Predict the 3D structure of the following.
Amino acid sequence: MANVEYVFGIHAVQTKLQRNPERVQEVWFQEGREDQRLNQVKGLADEQGIECQIMPRRELDNKVKGRHQGVVAACTPNPAKDEGFLKDLLENLQVPAFLLILDGVTDPHNLGACLRTADAAGVHAVIAPKDKSASLNSTVSKVACGAAETMPFVQVTNLARCLKSLQDAGVWITGTAGEATQHIHQVDLKGPVALIMGAEGDGMRRLTREGCDQLVKIPMAGEVSSLNVSVAAGVCLFEAVRQRT
C-alpha cells in the first residue's frame, strides 16, 4: 500500500480506531489468537465498517518491527501539527500554557515515551524541530500507547524563532541543562511554561539554550550523571504538575 504506516499493538490500534477511525484502512489479526482485548479491537473495527483479515503470525511479524500483540492496522500517516496550530492553541487556551519542547530527540522510542508522559501530565502540546528529530511513525505510536493520537505534536521549521514567538505570547521558557545552578524544584512553574529537554547525550543546542529564560537541572544523588530523556521529562513535567495543582 502506498503512503501507509503500520500501527501495531492492542492499545495503539484501539486508540486509533476510537480517535481517528477514518485513517484506518485495514486491520490484520493473528490467526489462532483469541482473547477479550483483541475481540474488543475487532468489534471496534467492525462497528466502523473497516475491513479485517486473519493471517499467520509470521506475516504480521514481517509487517512491523516490534511486539504487535496479534494486531496490526494499515493507516494513513498521522500528520504533525504546524506553527499555525500552535498559535491558535495559545490564543484559545483558558488556562496557563503547559508545553514540552524536545530539542533534537532522534530515537522514536524516546519520542513515544515522551508523548505518553506528556499526555499523562496534561501537557497541551509537544514541540520539536522538523530537522534532526524523530517523527511520528509506527514505533512512536506503539511506545506512546495511544498518546500519539491524543497529544498534539507540533513540528517547527525554526526552533529558535518558535521560542521567541512563545515568549512574545507570555510563555516562560525553562531549559534543562546539567550546568544549571537551580534545581527543578526551586523554580516557579505555575504560569505559562514550556519545558525544554535536550537531545540524547548532547543536550540542548547552543541557540536553544540562549533562547531560554532560565536553566534548571534535576538533582542527582548517585553515580550516574544524567537520565534518559523520557525519564527526565517525567520528573520535570510532574514537578510542574505538583506546583500547578
User: Anything to note?
Assistant: The first strand starts at residue 5 and ends at 8.
